[in-house]
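ugh ok so i messed up the first submission bc i forgot one of the chains. this is the corrected input, ALL of the components this time, i swear. 447 residues overall. if the numbers dont match what u have on ur side tell me asap before i send this to the collaborators (the ones from the other lab, u know who)
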Amino acid sequence: MVLIRDRKKKKELLKKLPLMFSRLVVAGIPVDKLVEKSALIIGAGGLGVIVAEILARTGIGKLYIVDRDVVREENFNRLGFSSEDVGRPKAIVLGEKLRRLRNYGDIDERYRLEIETYHADIVGWDKLEELISKVDIVFTCVDNVIARNEVNYLIMKHKKPLVDGATSVSGFSGTVITVIPCETPCYECYYGSETSIQIDRVERIGQCDASLATTMSIVAALQTDQGLKILLGYGKIYPLIKISLLDEIKISTVENLKPREDCSVHRRFCNG
Amino acid sequence: MDEESLAELEFLANWLSKLKKRTGEEAFSTILNLLKFENIVQPVDQDWFKRVTEEIKIFNLFKKTIYGDLLPHFENLRASKDNNQVFYVDFIESSDKKSKKCIILLPKLYPILPPNSLRALDGSLEVFTSHTDPTRCLGEILKRYWDKAGRMGIAHWLIFVEVFLGLVKKPLKIA
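and heres the new structure output, hopefully the right one now
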């Protein structure tokens, strides 16, 4: 599956798709294929809200969203939530917004967004493995190492691609890590060892970190870009993308990274 | 660790208690060395049951030693029969001695990673190893001391929870 280049094909697709997808077809996005895909978004905060909204607007067919928190006033500096949402589970609120966005009027059933939302902590959660096993891709948009490792373990087990987004303690920098199981380094390869591949320290356990909507928007956009490329089979996938907005604007990509040989998760799930 | 070691352990513990520890790190390293785990096994491993047995033994042993004072609020640690990543413990309120059942969630990579969270089933208590809300997050206090080799367990983690709860109830004022 690649981008549509042929003008005739684009015209045919434009005729049958709802108007909301017309500009995507002009860009060559095969929306009719994307509606057959599903994604699991873990974390509905500053990153997850954007990833979910872009996927919904681009035509993903089914979304599963999980988040353990409720909306609080301190979330308002990021995109997605406002005062009427306070006290309600983030995943549920986001789900309602996305349904309103995609399932409007008499839009054809085929192009409606199917969405399931869960207010749950994924650690030790029985349903997590079932969800990961049935989706086409997983996005982690969480704020802690434990949740990332939990998901990493299961995507490696079920050989599902993962795109992780993270922003720094300072709020001005971030990373996007894309994991293609047994081909690129997994999350544990980066963080599971003192001798692991060195990347900027993007996270410290248990700090009430800064968060800036500017950095988060860029990280989430790049995260979704990598995810769409995996789902639709076009463009280049980078194991690691670094973003810094402090002083100069820098976005750098890292290629040709291999899984760490002594990574315990790789040893368990990738033979040889 | 078996019951036979208890007498020896208590003797050692009493002896160590007479030594003046200069720093928290020194004191914590003493506790770790005294009660370190031998089964470095994860909830996803077949022989996880060995670790479960050791978790409960060490918790009970810990409560019996002089260091038990460091865990005044927690009693009766037990494992879930249905989910390897779940333990239960009772939280005893200091004021009325009422007991609250709490759930402890462990990550799949525990004990290399610390436990994820402790929550009272009635929702009145929530502590996370990592959370963006600082009133529920152990944070740096844990990160500095958690043993990445997996020799610490739930009993050790609950000490951090006790310290954290103490600080939340009686915050330190920095002049």
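quick check: The helical segments of chain B are 4-18, 24-34, 48-64, 140-143, 154-169. that seems consistent at least. Chain B touches chain A at residues 44, 83, 85-86, 105-109, 112-114, 116-117, 128-134, 137-143 (CB under 8 Å).
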